[in-house]
Structure formats: structure tokens, C-alpha cells
Write a structure and sequence with these properties.
This protein has helices at 2-14, 18-35, 41-55, 64-82, 85-101, 105-116, 126-139. By secondary structure, the protein is mainly alpha-helical. It has a single domain (2-139), classed as Tetratricopeptide repeat domain (Serine Threonine Protein Phosphatase 5, Tetratricopeptide repeat). α5 packs antiparallel against α6.
Length: 141
């Protein structure tokens, strides 16, 4: 159920219904807590972090960047603990984008490269292609 609720949250986000997306993610986390279903936990945290940033106006209100950073770091930590390397890569890419927005492309590149270099195959998958492109963009700055 948490996975399917995350899909619904993404649909809300695509339709610029950020409030509904965040509420749906909260429901997904609550269901995961109730059932012990943790397989998609890292992605739920990552999506919340991404949405927290997207929901913020420019400049973001106080606490929005910190909330996003906390969610993204938690997503990466959960993925590491679970050995979910693809989810860890997604979290690292989202963190890298946040660090780039904060003006720290060097740290963004280092953190993402650390995760990217653990992969030995699957370089034709969408996530690894995106990570490689993001690393190239970060290196060019």
C-alpha cells in the first residue's frame, strides 16, 4: 500500500497539488508504520523532501530547506541500512540537487559520486543515466 500511495502522491505532485501529495505521503508513512512494510520507506522520505522544496516559494520560507535536507538524508540513511542501492542513488541525486541549489556543487558531486561508484552494472538504467548526467553537470561548474 505505501508504494501505491507514493504513486498517487506523484500524480498529485505532477498536477501541482502539493498539499494533497504531502498528505498522501503522510498516509503512506502511517500505513508503513502500522503494517511494518518498510520496503519503500526510503522513497517516501525522498519524495517528501523533494516536495518540501518544490512547495517552497522563492526564496523558500524558513525551515523548508532544512526540512527537505532532513528528509533526503533520512531517505539515504534508510536505503543504506536496507541495502537498497537504487533507492540510495535516488536519494543521493536529490541531495546533490539540493546542495547545488545551496551553491555547493563540490559537496554535491562528492556525495553522489560516492554512491554512483558502488555500481558495477546496470549503467543503461534510467537512474544511473540521470546520475551520470548530474555528475557531469556538477563537474562542469
Amino acid at each position: 500500500m505505501p508504494y501505491f500511495l507514493s504513486l498517487l502522491a506523484r500524480a498529485h505532485a505532477r498536477n501541482r497539488q502539493t498539499g494533497a501529495a504531502l498528505e498522501t505521503l503522510a498516509e503512506a508513512r502511517e500505513r508503513a508504520e502500522q503494517t511494518g512494510e518498510r520496503i519503500w520507506e526510503a522513497e517516501l522520505h525522498r519524495l517528501e523532501g523533494v516536495l518540501a522544496l518544490e512547495a517552497a516559494s522563492a526564496p523558500p520560507p524558513p525551515g523548508a530547506v532544512e526540512r527537505a535536507e532532513k528528509c533526503l538524508a533520512q531517505a539515504r540513511a534508510v536505503a543504506q541500512r536496507q541495502g537498497a542501492r537504487s533507492l540510495e542513488l535516488r536519494a543521493a541525486m536529490s541531495l546533490a540537487r539540493l546542495r547545488r541549489l545551496q551553491g555547493d556543487a563540490g559537496a554535491a558531486g562528492r556525495e553522489l559520486r560516492e554512491v554512483y561508484q558502488t555500481f558495477t552494472e546496470g549503467f543503461d538504467t534510467a537512474d544511473l543515466k540521470q546520475a551520470r548526467a548530474l555528475l557531469a553537470t556538477l563537474a562542469a561548474r
